[in-house]
Amino acid sequence: MNQNIYLQLLYKNFSTMNDNRMMATANILRPILGDYVNVMDYKALLDGIEDTMGSKAAAVIITAAGRAYGKKIATTLGASIETKDLPTILKRLNTSLGQEGTRLCIIDEISQQENFIRVKVVEPVEMSGETSDSIRMCPFTLGVLNGFIDQIMQKRHQARQIAVADQLGLQTEFEFTPI
């Protein structure tokens, strides 16, 4: 099933909730096993791509995939610059990606400065199971947020993850600077 159909099914499922929360409850794509896979399966995929291509090349490709997905999510959710309130828009994205949605991460804090946007996330999927000395970066989560922000702001942003060594536990921060 292609990604556009998947997003449409998710949106249809989310938009039918009575209380306007976006919660994926039905097993739309896999009726027996459900629509979610174990985090360790994702981590094995990530490790395999990195082992095959090298971590830098893998990060470029995984970030690009996330960016395309983030743009599609923004379009599917109908998010646009017209609201002019990025924190509100990103909270809406959090509903899709967080505990009530796909569980990619939880968007914990958003601040919009004049020169950049900073987003703090908790429990990004890439950091699952990592030890305190891990240097694991979060290219897919970074890409999803980047694509979403680019789409709603109608402007390209340079994205970067704050050094993992400066983070605490299962949280990290990303900065998005207009290009």
Q: How would the blueprint of this fold be written?
A:
Blueprint (H helix, E strand, L loop, with lengths): L2 H13 L23 H15 L1 H23 L8 H12 L8 E7 L4 E6 L16 H15 L3 E5 L9 E8 L1
Antiparallel strand pairs: 1-2, 2-4, 3-4
Features:
single chain, 179 residues, alpha+beta, 5 helices
Number of helices in the DSSP assignment: 5
- Beta-strand percent range: 5-15%
Low-confidence segments: 13-25
Shape: globular
Report, as a whole number of angstroms, the end-to-end distance: 34 Å
Helix content: 40-55%
Our Rg estimate from Cα atoms comes to 16 Å
Instruction: Walk across the major sheet and give the strand order.
Output: 1-2-4-3
The average pLDDT is 82
Structural class: alpha+beta
Helix-strand sequence: HHHHEEHEE
Number of strands: 4
Most strands sheet = 4 strands, antiparallel
Characterise this structure.
By secondary structure, the protein is α+β, with helices and mostly antiparallel strands. It is 44% helix and 15% strand. It contains five helices and four strands. It has helices at 3-15, 39-53, 55-77, 86-97, 139-153, and strands at 106-112, 117-122, 157-161, 171-178. It has a four-stranded antiparallel β-sheet with strand order 1-2-4-3, with helices on one face. Helix 1 packs across helix 3 (55-77) and helix 2 packs across helix 3. The radius of gyration is 16 Å and the shape is globular. The N and C termini lie far apart (34 Å). Residues 13-25 have low confidence and may be disordered.
